[in-house]
Design a protein that fits this description.
alpha+beta
Length: 140
Amino acid sequence: MALERTFSIIKPDATRRNLTGKIIAKFEEGGLRVVASRRIHMTRRQAESFYGVHRERPFFGELVDFMISGPVVVQVLEGENAIARNREIMGATDPSKADAGTIRAEFAESIGENSVHGSDAPETARQEIAHFFSEADIVG
Ligand code: GDP
């Protein structure tokens, strides 16, 4: 297994409920390290661009409105097999289908307001990290 980096967002439903510490603890307990982090309020343009791949999906407007409804924490997570590991720690998109102990099972409110985002593949991880961070922002 290789040391990998992945991109993560703590979404507005979680920042609103002051859950950032509990969510970061899940990453750390799961073997991932936060090597870059910033709290931001995304613009509509940023959210539309970030989720551009979902533009044709029926929930796109709802997703963008949600992602700009409050602050988010954008992060780079590093660890062995970090992309897959992060997705295990997050759990399934729909919290009712997420395994017990995962972030989404414990904290998510619905399939849309599901507390966290995580990259799904090496190429998307690279692109998503570059969307928000420069190499100099990442301290491993
Ligand atoms: P992920 O990789 O597990 O985040 O899931 P997807 O890439 O399939 O979807 C991206 C995000 O779109 C999800 O995390 C949800 O916030 C949102 N989303 C997915 N499906 C739905 C849906 O059916 N309704 C709504 N409102 N949002 C959805």
